[in-house]
Amino acid sequence: MPFKLRQLGAHLAVFFLVSPLFAAGPAVERTGALAAPSASDILRSAVESKGYRVILDDGWTADFWFSRAIATASKNSPGALYPELANGEFVAVVKFTKGFSDFRGQSLASSLYTLRYQYIPQDANHMGVSPNPDFLLAIPIADDSNPADPLSFKHLVALSARATGTTHPAVVAMAAAATPAAISKDDQGMTIFTVDVPTSVSGKTERLGIILKGQATQ
After folding, report:
1. Which DSSP category does 23 fall into?
2. Overall pTM > 0.70
3. Would 143 be classed as within a structural domain?
4. Within a domain: residue 8?
């Protein structure tokens, strides 16, 4: 075999051995600070100086910047996975670079949003919506410039509905946390991003599981 053909064959062999590494599955990377001009100075100072970039198998990506210190408080929340998180608490800023389909199947445009925690009331309107009553509600960043602002349930829902352009808020479901800074799937096929977030208690973190792919069955 001529030398050039042997060399080409060697290169092809290396390519086929290495190329699966580029399709090895979902990944989580650390990124730089939140620098979007649309984010207020208060908002930029409220999140950590480094973010997370989540990359899924299909090329979908999202960037997260989590709160420097999530406040924790005990509340009466039967069945909650995160009973120590306060309703309306600011959790993160997220950039859905390719848009997002929330837990209800509603479409969110490619943009920046704040995420605030909400325990969904277990009443006739919400029973059976999700196996867990813990959600993050997405709000367009222009409508939520100060993370310290307290938001009532009614106000939070109204602001989040601006993300969907409907009467319903944009709901990002939460799940049981797994390995931090990694992607996993639960027994229902939900794709979950797990992350450790600092709390207001020095040296303590809160491990959160956030559903990125998967929707309610009803």
Report:
1. G
2. yes
3. yes
4. no
* Number of domains present in the structure of the chain: 1
Q: Which residues lie closer than 8 Å to 115 by C-beta, 6 or more apart?
A: 90, 91, 92, 93, 94, 136, 137, 138, 139, 172
pLDDT tens digits along 158-208: 999 999 999 999 999 999 999 999 999 998 899 999 999 999 998 899 999
Q: What is the spatial distance between Cα 181 and Cα 85, in angstroms, rounded to a whole number?
A: 20
| Biggest CA pair distance of the chain | 77
Question: Mean pLDDT, 10 residues at a time, over the chain (218 residues)?
Answer: 50 42 74 95 97 96 97 82 94 97 96 96 53 93 95 96 96 96 93 96 94 84
* Domain assignment of residue 187, given as a range: 25-213
40 located within any domain: yes
User: In whole angstroms, how far apart are CA 10 and each of 4, 15, 18, 20, 23?
Assistant: 10, 9, 12, 17, 21
